Amino acid sequence: MTSRKTIEMLEASASDQNLLTEKPMSQWRLTLIRFRGRTSGMVGLSIVVMLILVAVFAPLIAPYEPNEVLIGKGEAGPREKPCVHVLGCDEDVEQHILGTDANVRDYFSRIVFGARVSLTLGFFTVTLALIVGSFFGAVAGYVGGWFDNIIMRIMDVILGFPSLLLAIAIVSVLGPGLQNALIAIAVVSIPAYARVMRSQVLTIKESDFVAASTALGASWRHILLRRVVPNALTPLVVLATLGVATAILEAAGLSFLGLGAQPPTAEWGTMLANERNNVFTSPHLVFFPGLAIMITVLGFNLMGDGLRDALDPTLNR
Amino acid sequence: MTDNLVQIRNLAKEFPVKGGVFQREIATVNAVSDVNLDIPRGETIGLVGESGCGKTTLGRMLVRLLEPTRGTIEFDGEDITHVKGGDLKRFRRRMQFIFQDPYGSLDPRTQVGQSISEGLRLHGIGNKDERQERVVEMLEVVGLKAAHAGRYPHEFSGGQRQRIGIARALILRPDLVVADEPVSALDVSVQAQVLNLLKELQSELNLTLLFVAHNLAVVEHISDKVAVMYLGRIVEMTDRDSLYRKPLHPYTEALLSAIPIPDPDRAKNRQILYGEIPSPLNPPLGCHFHPRCPIAIEGICEVDAPSLAARQDNGGHLAACHLRTGAHINLDPRAP
Q1: Is residue B110 part of a domain?
Q2: Do residues A217 and B123 touch, judged by C-beta distance below 8 A?
Q3: In this structure, is residue B99 part of a structural domain?
């Protein structure tokens, strides 16, 4: 169709780019390559992967059942010190690598199973908040007008309370328990996702490629789902990763206050709370759940930071 | 009467300016006011004017990306000013838009093949294989290769992206294409490629093209007719040769004299316009151009807005100037 001369000219510019030989690079692939080059992000990712493995294979890793009371089944007494045979602990004494708690349960097993509780809670909370928050944010940003105003003012009200205080209020209405803590923390973190999503949608819906879709005859639903939302996801991924850390921390906080996981569930916050009066006599019972919480939060935060750097085009190389 | 694909009548677009605590409308920007424009089938109309004169707004209204405030747009004999839903979709298939910014007009998360075939999918044309075939065909038309379909926009250069944008606009075989400064974001060397491509496609597909630009040399290269806009109004409209050889409106004269000529002996009689382009928030009364016009006459030009009128010796050459079209004879400044 086009004249030979133009074709030749255009082809010359097309073939000098290695575009025909190299593999296509999607944004996600590029991100992955950039992510791999960042040490802190990779450390975070390793921690998170390790935690997930621990949670999945908890029954294989833990030597005892988490709630198994070992009275009469061995020599161990309550609040036994950690004993690791390889590290020189007397062979006669039963091995509990992190000691036992007040009810003579193996503390290591409880901490391993605690990873399950914390991780599932973190993931479910964030998923719930992410879905609800980005739905409202996307609709508010896309529709605009009074609808936007109403939704965002509600979000502002939620955001106006200190998050833990509001979570406590919600749990006291719903009643204590892990599930209600999950709901409370999700509700508290909805506004963050809604706001980020809304601001993304506001920018993207004015972009030329959305106008191009409109000009081609796309419906608003097609534009919102195929054009706007996929392009808005990047900062939400970062926020969600960081959000898992916050959710785990808040869940531990609620459990510490007795509003989250209830005994005998092995939950790090609850375990910390139960033994807080014995911090001077048996410090290991307070130290290890705290360490577990810290490592988890650190892992997700590092991973989130790495992701943010990898996804931010302004920091590109 | 020539066969007009598009007839624009008294088209206007006002953007409200909101302010204050309650976001009340405190002013309006008259981006486009009372524009009449006929686009003959199969021709290329160049629309020129400086930044902010409303040329992009006009182009966007024409393809219904913006809602006009007043006036009518007729497309192929049908009024499309306010059509909605399925009817609008039917027209969307026949008119397309090429964007100025090749970096913002392609979805960064979508493979270019998908972007190009989006129109076919939306209008339910062909099955998957046929669509793929059309995409490959279209890629070759714009000088790219079939293998490029699976790539992402960021892997292409600006000129290549602009050609992808052209492929996307033309795959539906539209009757009308509005090209909004399609080359102004590109290097001069690449501009020629894209312009020649557009020109060739235009004649081969019998496209009607509204070519919006601020570069007069580019417009001269591609257009059959040229319309000059100033502050939301068309001030002069005629075929390309009369405009470039014998401009009527003083604004057009000034624009043409601003084209750099690579000849040190000829670049003497440059007309320089003083002052800024007035704010469309508060346009001057009468002729919008009178504060900067070298030939404005007091008592006429700041009182009455001239309408587009034909020159005495050339009925196809329209200009909105009291002094140059002879319309001022009817206007007595002392009359009540």
Answers
A1: no
A2: yes
A3: no
What domain range is B182 assigned to? 4-17+26-94+172-247
Residue B310 lies in a domain: no
Is B274 a domain residue? no
Is the ipTM of this structure higher than 0.95? no
pLDDT > 70? residue A18: no
Domain boundaries, chain A: 55-267
* Mean model confidence pLDDT for chain A: 86
Contacts of B118 in chain A (CB under 8 A): 213, 216, 218
- Residues, chain A: 317
* CATH number reported for the structural domain that contains residue B57 in this entry: 3.40.50.300
Taking only the tens place, the pLDDT of each residue in B29-76 is 888 888 889 899 989 999 998 888 888 999 999 999 989 998 999 998
Measured CA to CA, the distance from residue B73 to residue B97 in angstroms comes to 16
Q: Which residues of B128-147 are buried (b: 16+ CB within 10 A; e: fewer)?
A: eeebbebbbebbbbbbbeee
For residue B166, give how far its alpha carbon lies from the nearest alpha carbon of chain A (Å): 11
The CATH number corresponding to A55-267 among 2.30.40.10, 3.40.109.10, 1.10.3720.10, 3.90.640.10 equals: 1.10.3720.10
The number of domains in chain B is 1
A218 in contact with B, Cβ within 8 Å: yes
**B97:A211 CB<8 A:** yes
Please say whether the beta carbons of B234 and B49 come within 8 A.
no
| Run of H or E residues at B178 | strand B176-180
Q: Is A1 on the interface with B (CB under 8 A)?
A: yes
Q: What is the pTM of this model?
A: 0.81
Closest CA to B176 of B2, B37, B5: B5
Q: Please choose, from the candidates B295, B296, B323, B320, the residue with its C-alpha nearest in 3D space to the C-alpha of residue B310.
A: B320
A19–B93: do the CB atoms touch at under 8 Å? no
Mind listing the pLDDT tens digit for each residue in A139-190?
999 998 899 999 999 999 999 999 889 999 999 999 998 999 999 999 999 9
> Strand B309-311 relative to strand B314-319: parallel, antiparallel, unpaired?
antiparallel
| Neighbour-count burial of A293, counting CB atoms closer than 10 A to its CB (0-12 exposed, 13-18 middle, 19+ buried) | buried
CB A182 within 8 A of CB A126: no
Residue A243, classed as helix, strand or coil, is helix
